[in-house]
């Protein structure tokens, strides 16, 4: 019985090591937003007549059919400490801060402060703001 306890402890230690290695298989470089990304915004349906999306995303009403609308895609380019937002032929550069502990980003655009948490989804990155609004990023080609 005395030999059994150290063997069980050794197996538990090895199992926890392999579990940790499996969870850490994401490359550290994947946690940083660098370069150009195509951004699309998810729309939340609040009720049968009300929808909501992140304020960074522009809501466009179809000129041909006023009953139809969509949220326009745009591009974002992440540098070391700034984000360039490309929309409708215009570029706006905003400085941002990245929290290295949880890989979230914070910046001000106009009078609003944005704080986004980042999620990894294969080749996509999903940014969630404090209000629960989502921006889905795909690497621009």
Largest sheet: 8 strands, antiparallel, barrel
Strand fraction: over 45%
Using the CA coordinates, give the radius of gyration. Answer: 21 Å
Low-confidence stretches: 19-23
Report how far the terminal alpha carbons are from each other: 62 Å
**Structural class, judged by helices and strands?**
mainly beta
Task: Give the strand order of the largest sheet, numbering strands 1, 2, ... along the chain.
Answer: 1-6-7-8-9-10-11-12
Query: Share of helix among residues?
Result: 10-25%
The number of E-state strands comes to 12
Question: What is the helix tally?
Answer: 1
Helix and strand sequence: HEEEEEEEEEEEE
Name the overall outline: globular
Mean pLDDT: 81
Account of the protein in words:
This protein has 141 residues and is mostly beta strands. The protein is built from one helix and twelve strands; from the N terminus they run αββββββββββββ. The strands form three sheets. Strands 1-6-7-8-9-10-11-12 form an eight-stranded antiparallel beta barrel. The chain has a two-stranded antiparallel ribbon with strand order 2-3. A two-stranded antiparallel sheet has the order 4-5. The termini are far apart.
Features:
141 residues; mainly beta; 8-stranded antiparallel β-barrel; 1 helix
